[in-house]
Q: What sequence folds into this?
């Protein structure tokens, strides 16, 4: 048999040259025709060409260009009295990108931010890549030392700083100066509708003035290749020094659409920003909302009252939040709550949500969808797709089903649970634990300047999440623990997530975290750190332990309970490594 | 300034080699790690790698693999008493792909079909590319001569033929034999739940028996490169000999998701197949529904009664259809209609839908969304995104707004209206006509074996649609005519679409098409071909002309009206070239 479609790189180059030739022959007006070809194994054939008419590198900056046409007069951003349309946002981003190039930013340079969810953060997600640069959104809870260290590591040329965080940035610059390093340029983000609250020195720019100097007709520097970097996200550092995760234009485009689809975000949604924009680029939804022509409701500070008020005022349709945000909502005083105008869809993730919290959110009228992912997977990677046949189950069963992490989204190729050493697939029995592994286009390009860590994370051709999970018979996965968090007691694996779920079932428990405590006899035993709800100070450790023993196999119940506030990362994750250190210093129990 | 992210192809190759090395060093178990790199202008940097963990060529066959996990026990296909789950469909497609390779199909071979919307057509959309081959779905209305010609042109190795179309195929084989060419292998699709209606000769295979011989554990032949061809779609041939439009795996993946988003197809929809699956691969929705875990309701024959019955029986949520299908629904006898159980979303396109038909569909309880595209754009390319602020307008104004073709979808980069000669952008004034031009990843790879036609279609770096349109001040485009259909009378352009819209407003008109008639004085004048509704035989040409003069500038009203049935393509498009010939033979009017 002859193969009609065969590898014909040579033939393609030929036909491509002929194409150019014939264009030039026909009319000089068409001289701006531009094309490229792929010298890899493209299976071309006679008549096929690869040119600017049928190929554009995938990038989420295309979403803004489209939104400016399709949704021009609709509201893009609301922040207090500040309000923009998509047409205005587009123009502002063009000006800002132009201003960045005027400051000397070249293709591939890093531009950093230190800011909460204000409009400038929204705009920088488009303007920085439109200037050909890479956006690095730093965690607003870093101290000056950490900030200085990450500015050095990322080689950021400019940092945009919110006025309330200026002292942290100045502190970081002082650390820089001690080492003789040149600090980045600083652009101050002041409140647009108020006076600038600080003096602008000669080495500092102001956001609105800078933007006003940019050109509206700026020619966007699109990526030459869709695998070019678009952003740099440092991990939250629950277990180690933050690592710089590099996202590509291609991955960001694909994860934006996959997240829009997994959250059921239709055309023209109203999205409330309770997830930090600096965290995985807001789970890629800053870009995803431009794709759907949505309205971004920005909040400087996330409080239950602020959430309920915004929902009522702006008819919010969708929002997101780590389980800690959901916990804050369900435990807020009734005086802070107001009835929802309609069902508000909440996407939760970042840590396994206790079923009790999901139940309570749904009682309040929220629809909770549960996703799972890591910074290395652009945020969301799996979701617990809800089957209509589960609707008729009792609330607690529904919540247990929904607390599972589910199946991979459309941007990924595969998520599997495998033995971390042999790579053997675990049986779908809901019992056998293995490591969650990812494979697909929405996995990071690597850790910046840390090839060793990249190699380790990708060893075996899969991204190793470091999370332990089981696979249920219906193929849904359920996280049982971080590989580093699991408690091994008398040879038995104890999922700290399972113990925490029982603890959350106790009426007095507001927050709970379980870690391993060294034990001479058992090796390790579970140790619970618990924050009680107000008015429950009388509850004793013994009562908590008894409650756990009533609801769990004996060996899984905590042997120690300590009442205190839990240390958290800025994204609401409990810093178990701190608690583990604390449990160690208590010595062996036996 | 140093550029942190710079072109570093050499550096990447180095780090890539180091990666392999370190994997091999660490553990021989990880030897199946596989990777590739892009020797084009990827802007890599230290720590970034490009390997099987973070790159998979985009292909819609991934959707089936995911559906088999995420939606395993949910219904994939219903056809009469035949019913499959996604788990079963996945297994059947693996077996079918395996069987194709057993028949000698190699990567890049073409596999053709000649069949209506039956389950085999659904399965072949996955199984053929899973065998590494290219799917060519032929129009079921072709005669034997055309079929023979396209089988020769496509070099199809196998053709799958529905039992009701067997004689057409045999006729084509006889034409083949006369020319001495070897015909393709024939696989007969019989009705699965009945006896095989024809004798199977030794040169012919039967679908179910073939599939049963395939292996479930077949190793899918994924594309090496996402620009590899996945399907070959011949244009409907309204104006010329059908051209073979080549789709890529990448384009098919992106258009599937873009179409799902533009039609608002949520998770687990129920889709009624009234659009032919052979037409643009069912507007890419065969793949799109696998992405969303939908149920495909297959119909051999599309009738109003069949549509209403299927909606009621299967709780259909979405369907599609050319304006002719909508026309058939709104003009069906009341006895064939039944009340809708809920709003059914209908996506219409393929020709400009008359506003009156949209209004009547909405009165019946359908929600109509309007899209526009061509075979060359994988089907849908733009959609008339509906703005909530239009809800309060009167029905006829709403229908006029909705009859516009709208804005480009998320898979494309840009759709613009430009002067076909100078490529200058027309003003967004709703009046100035220009040619609709497309640019982006969901534009075809080219016309098979017709580089000249590909070059013409892509001249200037845009895909030239051959359609004339205006751009409204809100950036929505509106098709006015085919470039070849427009009537030029006394130097004035007359949009035949506008005249047809007025004709549809006359209560007696069922179908209408306007073409140019040569005229010694005016050059051309509009000539209307009209099919009247039953019971309206008394209506005269003069009455129709007067009606048009009352609703249009005088020069735009037809000067001739001819009552007759309109010639159509199988996708419901009127074959205006036939009418134009007819109008020519009538000679000049003056």
A:
């Amino acid at each position: 048999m002859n193969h009609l479609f065969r590898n014909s790189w040579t033939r393609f180059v030929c036909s491509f040259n002929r194409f150019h030739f014939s264009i030039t022959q026909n009319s000089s007006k068409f001289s701006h025709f531009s094309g490229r070809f792929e010298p890899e194994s493209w299976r071309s054939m006679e008549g096929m060409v690869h040119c600017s008419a049928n190929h554009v590198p995938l990038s989420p900056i295309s979403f803004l260009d489209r939104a400016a046409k399709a949704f021009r007069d609709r509201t893009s951003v609301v922040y207090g009295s500040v309000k923009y349309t998509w047409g205005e946002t587009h123009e502002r981003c063009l000006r800002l990108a132009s201003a960045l190039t005027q400051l000397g930013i070249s293709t591939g340079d890093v531009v950093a931010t230190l800011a909460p969810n204000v409009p400038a953060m929204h705009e920088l997600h488009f303007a920085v890549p439109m200037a050909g640069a890479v956006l690095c959104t730093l965690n607003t809870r870093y101290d000056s030392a950490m900030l200085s260290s990450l500015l050095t590591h990322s080689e950021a040329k400019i940092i945009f700083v919110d006025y309330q965080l200026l002292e942290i940035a100045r502190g970081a610059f002082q650390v820089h100066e001690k080492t003789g390093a040149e600090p980045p340029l600083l652009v101050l983000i002041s409140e647009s509708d108020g006076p600038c609250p600080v003096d602008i020195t000669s080495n500092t720019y102001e956001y609105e003035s800078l933007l006003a100097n940019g050109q509206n007709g700026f020619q966007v520097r699109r990526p030459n290749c869709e695998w070019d970097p678009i952003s740099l996200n440092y991990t939250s550092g629950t277990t180690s020094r933050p690592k710089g995760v590099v996202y590509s234009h291609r991955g960001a485009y694909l994860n934006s659409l996959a997240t829009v689809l997994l959250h059921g975000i239709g055309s023209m949604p109203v999205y409330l920003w309770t997830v930090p924009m600096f965290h995985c680029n807001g789970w890629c939804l800053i870009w995803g909302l431009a794709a759907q022509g949505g309205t971004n409701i920005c909040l400087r500070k996330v409080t239950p009252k602020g959430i309920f008020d915004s929902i009522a005022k702006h008819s919010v349709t969708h929002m997101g939040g780590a389980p800690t945000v959901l916990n804050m909502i369900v435990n807020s005083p009734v005086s802070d709550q107001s009835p929802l105008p309609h069902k508000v869809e909440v996407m939760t993730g970042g840590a396994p949500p206790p079923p009790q919290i999901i139940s309570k959110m749904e009682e309040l009228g929220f629809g909770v969808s549960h996703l799972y992912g890591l910074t290395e997977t652009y945020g969301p990677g799996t979701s617990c797709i809800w089957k209509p046949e589960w609707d008729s189950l009792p609330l607690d069963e529904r919540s247990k089903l929904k607390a599972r992490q589910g199946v991979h989204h459309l941007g990924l190729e595969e998520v599997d649970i495998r033995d971390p050493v042999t790579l053997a697939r675990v049986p779908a029995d809901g019992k056998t634990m293995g490591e969650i592994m990812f494979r697909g286009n929405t996995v990071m390009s690597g850790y910046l300047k840390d090839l060793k860590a990249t190699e380790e994370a990708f060893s075996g051709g899969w991204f190793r999440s470091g999370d332990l999970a089981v696979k249920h018979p219906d193929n849904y996965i359920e996280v049982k623990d971080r590989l580093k968090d699991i408690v091994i007691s008398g040879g038995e694996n104890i999922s700290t997530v399972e113990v925490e779920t029982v603890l959350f079932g106790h009426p007095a428990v507001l927050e709970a975290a379980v870690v391993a405590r060294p034990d001479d006899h058992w090796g390790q035993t579970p140790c619970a750190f618990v924050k009680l709800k107000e008015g429950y100070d009388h509850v004793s450790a013994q009562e908590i332990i008894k409650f756990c023993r009533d609801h769990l196999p004996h060996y899984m119940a905590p042997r120690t309970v300590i009442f205190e506030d839990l240390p958290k990362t800025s994204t609401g994750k409990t810093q178990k490594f701190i608690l583990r250190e604390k449990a160690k210093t208590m010595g062996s129990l036996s």
Q: What stands out?
A: Chain B has 18 helices and 26 strands. The first strand of chain B starts at residue 75 and ends at 79.
